[in-house]
Amino acid sequence: MSEQLSGLYAVTDSQLLPPDKLLPWVDAALAGGARVLQYRDKSADAARRLEEARQLRGLCHYYGATLIINDDLKLAAELGVGLHLGRDDGCLREARAQLGEHAIIGATCHADLDFAAEAEAAGASYIAFGRFFQSITKPGAPQATPVLLEQARRRFDLPIVAIGGVTLHNAPQLIGAGARMLAVINGLFGAPSASEVERRARGFTELFQST
């Protein structure tokens, strides 16, 4: 699991990636080296989300990447893929019991090391901290710092994810402070073309390879 949970962690956004862009932009991110993909769609269209998630599962299988569903235990269970839970989006222990011991389940911890310890005890596969920089997706999220990452690295054995305003410019300091994965939304998918998404993905991937 440790090899799976490292490197670029691409996170989709339905505002950035409408249906006509979702698959080609994600394909480009995976071609550029993204190791983990989170499907994040808060809409109420369950049928469309199921179909899109199925297609994304196929892409991830092709590239050898890991698919994770954001805050939808039912969908993750139906597809047999991973799950990411926000702080107020369900019980991690219940998700672990339903998905099984081998499923990848991540937890949002914001800037709270004690909550991360609770998530670890509840069976989290990885813990995510953020936002580290100004975030378009979640502008009101609590602020986290590289010092927090260093503290988390010393305290936990779980893979650590950094999220929130991550770009190619600021990514190196997060990796240096202890981030095993960088969860990127706008810094990856806020691009004018699929080819630019792939270029950015390769840039993030090279940062991990050089450390």
How does the SSE layout of this entry go?
Blueprint: E1 7-11, H1 19-31, E2 36-39, H2 46-63, E3 66-70, H3 73-79, E4 82-85, H4 92-99, E5 105-110, H5 113-122, E6 126-129, H6 146-155, E7 160-163, H7 171-177, E8 181-184, H8 186-189, H9 194-209
Helix pairs in contact: 1-2, 1-9
Notes on the structure:
The longest helix is centred in the first third of the chain and has 18 residues, at 46-63. The protein is of the alpha/beta class. It is globular and about 40 Å long. Helix 1 runs parallel beside helix 2 (46-63) and helix 1 (19-31) packs parallel to helix 9 (194-209). Strand 4, helix 4 (92-99) and strand 5 (105-110) form a beta-alpha-beta unit. An eight-stranded parallel β-barrel has the order 1-2-3-4-5-6-7-8, surrounded by eight helices. 44% of the residues lie in helices and 17% in strands. The chain has helices spanning 19-31, 46-63, 73-79, 92-99, 113-122, 146-155, 171-177, 186-189, 194-209; strands at 7-11, 36-39, 66-70, 82-85, 105-110, 126-129, 160-163, 181-184.
